[in-house]
Design a protein that fits this description.
The chain has seven helices and ten strands. Helix content is 33%, strand content 26%. The strands form two sheets. A six-stranded mixed beta sheet has the order 6-7-8-3-9-10. Strands 2-1-4-5 form a four-stranded antiparallel beta sheet, with helices on one face. The protein has a single domain, classed as P-loop containing nucleotide triphosphate hydrolases (Rossmann fold, 3-Layer(aba) Sandwich), CATH 3.40.50. A hairpin with a 6-residue loop joins strand 1 and strand 2. The structure holds adenosine-5'-diphosphate (ADP) and magnesium ion. Magnesium ion binds next to helix 1.
Amino acid sequence: MTVLQLKNIKKTFGSGHKKVEALKDITFEANSDELIAIIGPSGSGKSTFLTIVGGLLTPTEGDIIINGQNISKLSEKERSKLRLKEIGFILQASNLVPFLTVDNQMKLLDKVKKENMSIQDVDRLCKDLGIDDLRGKYPSDLSGGERQRVAIAKALYSKPSIILADEPTASLDSDRAFEVMELLKNETKNNKTTTIVVTHDTRLISYFDKVFQMTDGVLENITEQVLNGENEWKK
Ligand code: ADP
Ligand code: MG
């Protein structure tokens, strides 16, 4: 099932000779049950792409359709509602609130999202992510890997249909990076989400169903090349 469609998306920052065309006419589709990588050099537009998909930034031109709804045509309020319900963000710097325990970070989400997860669902999520023992702790008491798992729990909270992750393994050693990818893969397959991961990390290639490369604001599907070993991201 097609969950996400981008049609002729352009994003321009600034104007005059300072103008930057961060995204140039991007058309893209993603289905439920798909784990997708976006690779590409720094400054090529990956974060801009992810932020636009997540509805945090509006495109200069083009349409974004999420579960059949054209979000470009929604009001700010409707868009923010859709974002809270359908989209889970995992950011580079894990977006934890420093003065709240892990449990209270999640309770805060109930307030923000205005829908409570059942206690059973929260328990299961914490068990699945291996953070059950950390629920009474503050972010400063957690290791990098633990913080990233809590950030993922927050993104998965209330079962979004789209999960967006910007370099989720950047600060992790190999074992932790594989663990995080394992979790994202399980979530994608078990809950039939669409998961898009921006990454530089060639260690992770085998986890993905599709690979796209961003070059200077242009997005290209390179899944075939990767599978055939014609790309640096060899199997
Ligand atoms: P990546 O994530 O691939 O490193 P970005 O999406 O962050 O790339 O940036 C793409 C281009 O858009 C870069 O040239 C960057 O400088 C520019 N850019 C991104 N955000 C802004 C902004 N808010 N204002 C002006 N330029 C921006
Ligand atoms: Mg970036």
